[in-house]
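Hi Q.,

Before the meeting this afternoon, I wanted you to have the nicotinamide-adenine-dinucleotide prediction in hand. No need to reply - just skim if you have a minute. The sequence and ligand are here:
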Amino acid sequence: MGRLQEKVAIVTGSGQGIGRASAERFAREGARVVVAEIREDTGRACAAAIEAAGGEALFVETDVTSADAVEGLVAQSVERFGSIDVLFNCAGGSIPEDVAITEVDLDAVWDHTLSLDLKGTMLCCRHVIPEMIRAGGGSIVNSTSVVALRGGYPVHVYTAAKGGVISFTRGIAGSYTTQGIRANAVAPGLVLSERLRERFGENAAAAMASQEDHPFSVGEPPDIAAVALFLASDESRMVTGAVIAADGGLSAF
Ligand SMILES: NC(=O)c1ccc[n+]([C@@H]2O[C@H](COP(=O)([O-])OP(=O)(O)OC[C@H]3O[C@@H](n4cnc5c(N)ncnc54)[C@H](O)[C@@H]3O)[C@@H](O)[C@H]2O)c1
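Predicted structure with the ligand bound:
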């Protein structure tokens, strides 16, 4: 029996990277998966890969920064699968233009980053939570980052957004616990998703100055999918309002 048998899971940003690895892993564990992705090509490819492997998936082209789009995502998910048990908010990320706050082009970076990483996460929770309440509970997993746990620089805007995700996650964990909803966040270190490989090249891991002291701080998308799976599943039923660092100890020592 899979660890997410009978569950319906929405994974945002699941066209590539951590989101895709998680969508595929969740499906292998028995979940029916909604692939909520802004890019049609990669979103469809993820859903097709899940179906080809014998799973069940629905692709919904979704911009998580749009309230209307997220409402549509929830409506289509419920129409197809009946309820929503798991929400993994994975759409997010920093952009190369995010530099020190004294230098950063706020017009280019602030709205984009706060919209995608914080507002997108909040909108998905806002529209999914009523469905989870209707179903008697659920598990929300949000994506924060090591940069919010130890002060990331120079990505100041992204650091602020991911800090907001932590506070928001704790807030909703408190509000909805009596309705059977858990909310947690995963805080990865450096994960070699397509986006980071593209930005830093194959030397991304070696480029990390702290690698010598923290050999577990660089990972691959399936490493984070495994943590998200634990938080999504009933195995973590005592865990809520928590931030699980998957950063090889970068935030601890
Ligand atoms: N990769 C890392 O090292 C790392 C470290 C810490 C935290 N994280 C967080 O983990 C999450 C996933 O990171 P990743 O590296 O796998 O990212 P990625 O860039 O590889 O994938 C992100 C996916 O989200 C999609 N997306 C972008 N904007 C969207 C929108 N408005 N609506 C819906 N989908 C959208 C993209 O098309 C892409 O498929 C992000 O929240 C990121 O901040 C990543």
